[in-house]
């Protein structure tokens, strides 16, 4: 009896399901099938067939301890945001060539699923280049270690063949997350601000588009983003960064209302028939900080909110870069032309590095609360995390880095007539100690190129520091005090992070000039 009743119930359910499916069909729209696309003619997005806009925030899983992912995402959700945006840095997932890691702090699928569980979609930036003030802009250091002359971010086959190999692995992680498959990923960005790169190689960004479509499926909504520098030269950047068939978006920070109009008008020039939804993919509430930087000027909260409102009133979707910045753990910070990026990536973001709310957080939340009909209403912000004093921390000596004879016990050494680069040594980060016994000794030691700093000791005594282009300062000559034939010369070379905005095959290196003696 019981058994047959169960069968009947499930038949009934089955019938009901068929009925709703039919209803959808008769309506002619298939409204609830998961999908996401740009409806160019009507200047809007369609999510599952319905008009859609987003207010999202950049938040980088690779800059947050995975135990804190949920906490930080809840703070983003409490603002009323309905999406997040992040890069997937290639070098974070393929640290050494052929070894892939998508677990723990690298499990971005889990990060997106957590966001989804709170009611936020994902805008995923697959690269291969990210920038993001991240080591080498997200490109693996082994690309230049394997081939010194490789021309990155162009259609150089030495580069594109590696990208194809990486994308074929990465795409298997992304596919289950795509909206079409019921997942939270709405759009996938290729490259990043490509128009700011000198190469302007359309063969290359067409190749990225075709690879992404081939691997993810042609119905995957792709996008690009290009920036507007303060001098207003944004249009030239879009000429190199926008890709046929790919939705072009723009980046700009708080500005006057006339510029909002101007920048979005330029975005539309790069959309089919000049139509399509407006998107600012990087709207800057704060900014990054470099080592040695003395001061920083940020826009006022009022200017920031005013620009956000102006964009919203024009019908735009907006991504705040960063809504939560986080931390460059380990040696993962990148470098700018002037100096490397500091360990903190707080970014003066509305949610501070330790998860606290700043005054501007509440202003953004209040603004979103006031938007009529906004579906993802702000929730109550979680309480600030408890602060505690650190107990006494006792330090232990691990290894005497400035005493070569002792350090050899801990590290491997290579002998070479000419100094080997970090890349030659397959040493991605940190420090390399170079040492030699001087047969003949001069007064001055001149080295053509030490990237980035080189700390000099002569038979154990500190002599000074080589500097390469730190806030435009260079030290290429060190005076050796009381140098005698047979002294030991030690130079510790420090890698402070590879260039992020500019892609320059940034070797970490110490090169002897031809006239260096001894
Ligand atoms: C790369 O692009 C250039 C034009 O910019 C073209 O001449 C060349 O054949 C392309 N190379 C490859 C490998 O596609
Ligand atoms: C060594 O360098 C100092 C400072 O750069 C310079 O004044 C001096 O003339 C140099 N000495 C020799 C012998 O080249
Ligand atoms: C320091 O070196 C960099 C890179 O070679 C160069 O661009 C810069 O002009 C130099 N600065 C000075 C003050 O000479």
UniProtKB/TrEMBL annotation:
Q: Tell me which InterPro entries the record gives.
A: B-gal_1-like, BetaGal1-like_ABD1, GH, Gly_Hdrlase_35_cat, Glyco_hydro_35_CS, Glycoside_Hdrlase_35
Query: What organism does the UniProt record list as the source?
Result: Pristionchus pacificus (Parasitic nematode worm)
Q: Name one GO cellular component term.
A: vacuole
Q: Which UniProt keywords apply?
A: Glycosidase, Hydrolase
SUPFAM superfamilies linked: (Trans)glycosidases (SSF51445)
Give one GO term, molecular function aspect.
beta-galactosidase activity
Q: Does the keyword Cell membrane apply?
A: no
Q: Where are the transmembrane segments?
A: none
Any single Pfam family the record assigns to this protein: BetaGal_ABD_1
Q: Tell me yes or no: is Hydrolase among this UniProt entry's keywords.
A: yes
- Where on the tree of life does the source sit, at the highest rank? Eukaryota
**What is one GO biological process annotated to this record?**
galactose catabolic process
The record's family statement is: Belongs to the glycosyl hydrolase 35 family.
State the protein's name: Bgal-1
């Amino acid at each position: 009896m019981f058994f047959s009743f169960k069968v009947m119930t499930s038949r009934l359910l089955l019938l009901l399901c068929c009925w709703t499916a039919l209803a959808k069909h008769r309506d002619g729209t298939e409204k609830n099938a998961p999908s996401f696309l740009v409806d160019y003619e009507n200047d809007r997005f369609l999510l599952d067939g319905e008009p859609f806009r987003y207010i999202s925030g950049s938040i980088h899983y690779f800059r947050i301890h995975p135990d804190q992912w949920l906490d930080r995402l809840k703070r983003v959700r409490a603002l009323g945001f309905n999406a997040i945006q992040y890069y997937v840095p290639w070098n974070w997932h393929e640290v050494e060539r052929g070894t892939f890691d998508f677990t723990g702090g690298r499990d971005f699928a889990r990060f997106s699923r957590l966001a989804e569980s709170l009611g936020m979609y994902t805008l995923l930036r697959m690269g291969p280049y990210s920038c993001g003030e991240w080591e080498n802009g997200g490109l693996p250091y082994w690309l230049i270690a394997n081939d010194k002359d490789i021309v990155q971010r162009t259609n150089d086959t030495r580069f594109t063949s590696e990208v194809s190999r990486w994308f074929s692995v990465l795409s298997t992680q992304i596919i289950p997350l795509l909206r079409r498959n019921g997942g939270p990923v709405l759009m996938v960005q290729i490259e990043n601000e490509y128009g700011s790169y000198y190469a302007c190689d359309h063969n290359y960004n067409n190749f990225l588009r075709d690879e992404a479509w081939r691997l993810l499926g042609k119905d995957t909504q792709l996008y690009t983003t290009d920036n507007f520098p303060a001098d207003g030269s944004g249009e030239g950047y879009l000429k190199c960064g926008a890709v046929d068939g790919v939705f072009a978006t723009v980046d700009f920070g708080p500005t006057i209302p006339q510029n909002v109009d101007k920048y979005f008008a330029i975005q539309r020039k790069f959309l089919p028939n000049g139509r399509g939804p407006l998107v600012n993919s990087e709207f800057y509430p704060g900014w990054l900080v470099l080592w040695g930087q003395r001061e920083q000027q940020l826009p006022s909260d009022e200017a920031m909110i005013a620009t956000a409102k102006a964009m919203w009133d024009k019908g735009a979707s907006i991504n705040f870069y960063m809504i939560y910045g986080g931390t460059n753990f380990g040696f993962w910070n990148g470098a700018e032309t002037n100096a490397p990026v500091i360990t903190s990536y707080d970014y003066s973001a509305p949610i501070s590095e330790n998860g606290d709310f700043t005054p501007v957080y509440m202003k953004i939340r209040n603004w979103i609360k006031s938007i009529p009909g906004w579906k993802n209403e702000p929730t109550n912000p979680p309480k600030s995390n408890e602060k505690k004093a650190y107990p006494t921390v006792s330090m232990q000596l691990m290894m005497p880095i400035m005493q070569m004879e002792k350090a050899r016990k801990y590290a491997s050494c290579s002998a070479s007539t000419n100094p080997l680069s970090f890349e030659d040594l397959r040493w991605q980060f940190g420090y390399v100690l170079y040492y030699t016994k001087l047969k003949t000794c001069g007064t001055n030691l001149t080295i053509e190129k030490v990237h980035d700093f080189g700390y000099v000791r002569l038979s154990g005594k500190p002599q000074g520091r080589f500097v390469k282009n730190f806030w435009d300062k260079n030290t290429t000559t060190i005076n050796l005090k009381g140098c005698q034939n047979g002294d030991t010369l030690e130079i510790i070379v420090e890698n402070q992070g590879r260039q992020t905005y500019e892609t320059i095959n940034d070797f970490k290196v110490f090169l002897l000039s031809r006239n260096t003696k001894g």
